[in-house]
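Reminder to self: tokens first, then the designed residues, so the page reads top to bottom the way the pipeline ran.
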């Protein structure tokens, strides 16, 4: 490997991250009768003690847990983010998201940076959760339909990317789905929209094979995402879509609403630590009765009923790190949280755990992993600038720019999707340069088509930079 002059402008690509999380110990439950709202807690271990009404909050909200704090996203009519101390439940901070914005989710990147989706506006906001300060905005107007609003909804982070679901509903036609829905990808380091299809003019998001994504992103054990798409209510035209955060694609519908027998209201996925990996869905039938179902994620789709309820009463479903399924049951006569074993579908709780007001949304402590962003890390000494051409059949040139003034030993590896190192180099380097990968592994064999990661680090320096290479079907090299 020999240093060369820096080639022209290259595309910045960030890839997946390794993450770690601590064991969960309790559930936070948002409760509401749509006149008032509150936060209750339930210990995960038996006897699953509940402490109700720990804090009063907006009557329309959802909750998230990041960096040891509980975030209450106060939605329609409140337009506010409230941060609570999970021990005292005192208000740490609260800040407005703009009048009439209807915030739907928050994704906290660091203690000083967070993204907020604003359902009734075309601009996604960037906030400082430590101060409540406004840092800027990202226009998602290019992804809106004719009413000018993309209906940005839920978010999830994977490495250096943030994924934002956009429903694209026709507000002039009773919020019915338009021709398509999508997921917008944002570079968390630069706040730029990642164009997932450079060939098509204009910025492109991940086109979903079903419309109207309404659920949270559920992360599977193998690092994919599941997203429930409801389509038109009362019509079994939706399904659970699987997204790949490495290839930035969504081509698989794991299960359809026709197979589930109703509209998808929520989806969660088992951890697989205690057996086969199952997914869990809350669906509503034509009479608006809700039911908790499960289906096997491998082999032929087999749907298994777990708990049929009377009325539109089942809300959020979540899976804890013990492979237990928690579901909010808002039945008027006995509202509470039910818990099931993910492997058998058998209810663990003898009766719903009372939460004061009817439960609506659940978040576990230690849920959010401490994400390690790919290229560059804070304080990293090397930065991945991009690859050209990309995708490639021939030689793929990877430009690595060092962030140090002095020389150092650079270590670079090409890693396949299975995590195996295909090719590796070490070299003394200093400043901007380009290395060439000829598309072959260490034994000289042509590497198959697929997605590869470039991992770069400096010996004795902090941080790892990672980029993405896509190889098309092998051609002349």
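Designed residues (477 positions):
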């Amino acid at each position: 490997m020999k240093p060369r002059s820096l080639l022209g402008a290259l595309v910045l690509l960030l890839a997946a991250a390794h993450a770690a999380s601590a064991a969960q110990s309790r559930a936070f439950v948002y409760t509401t009768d749509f006149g008032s709202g509150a936060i209750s807690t339930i210990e995960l271990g038996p006897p699953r003690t509940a402490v109700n009404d720990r804090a009063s909050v907006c009557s329309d909200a959802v909750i998230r847990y990041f960096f040891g704090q509980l975030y209450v996203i106060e939605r329609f009519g409140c337009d506010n983010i409230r941060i609570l101390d999970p021990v005292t439940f005192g208000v740490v901070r609260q800040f407005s998201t703009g009048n009439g914005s209807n915030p739907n989710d928050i994704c906290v990147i660091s203690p000083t940076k967070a993204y907020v989706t604003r359902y009734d506006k075309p601009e996604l906001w960037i906030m400082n959760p430590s101060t409540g300060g406004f840092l800027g905005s990202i226009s998602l107007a290019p992804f809106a339909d004719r009413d000018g609003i993309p209906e940005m909804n839920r978010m999830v982070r994977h490495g250096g990317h943030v994924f934002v679901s956009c429903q694209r509903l026709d507000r002039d036609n009773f919020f019915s789905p338009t021709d398509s829905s999508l997921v917008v990808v944002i570079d968390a380091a630069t706040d730029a929209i990642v164009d997932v299809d450079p060939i098509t003019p204009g910025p492109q998001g991940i086109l979903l094979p079903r419309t109207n994504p309404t659920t949270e992103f559920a992360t599977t054990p193998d690092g994919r995402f599941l997203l429930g798409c409801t389509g038109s209510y009362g019509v079994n035209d939706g399904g659970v879509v699987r997204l790949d955060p490495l290839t930035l694609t969504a081509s698989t519908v794991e299960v359809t609403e026709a197979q589930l027998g109703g509209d998808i209201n929520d989806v969660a996925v088992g951890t697989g630590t205690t057996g086969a990996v199952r997914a869990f869905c809350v669906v509503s039938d034509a009479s608006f009765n809700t039911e908790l179902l499960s289906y096997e994620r491998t082999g032929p789709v087999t749907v298994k009923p777990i708990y049929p309820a009377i009325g539109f009463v089942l809300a959020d479903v979540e899976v804890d790190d013990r492979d237990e399924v928690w579901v909010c049951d808002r039945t008027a006569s006995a509202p509470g949280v039910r818990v099931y074993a993910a492997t058998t579908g058998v209810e663990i709780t003898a009766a719903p755990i009372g939460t004061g007001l009817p439960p609506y949304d659940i978040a576990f402590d230690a849920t959010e992993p401490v994400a390690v962003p790919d290229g560059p890390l804070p304080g990293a000494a090397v930065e991945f600038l991009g690859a050209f051409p990309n995708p490639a059949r021939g030689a793929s040139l990877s430009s690595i720019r060092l962030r140090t003034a002095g020389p150092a030993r650079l270590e670079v590896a090409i890693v396949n999707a299975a995590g195996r190192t295909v090719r590796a180099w070490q070299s003394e380097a200093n400043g901007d340069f380009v290395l060439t990968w000829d598309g072959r592994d260490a034994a000289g064999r042509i590497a198959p088509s697929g997605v590869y990661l470039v991992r770069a680090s400096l010996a004795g320096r902090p941080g790892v930079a990672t980029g993405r290479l896509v190889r098309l079907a092998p051609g002349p090299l």
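Helices lie at 257-260.
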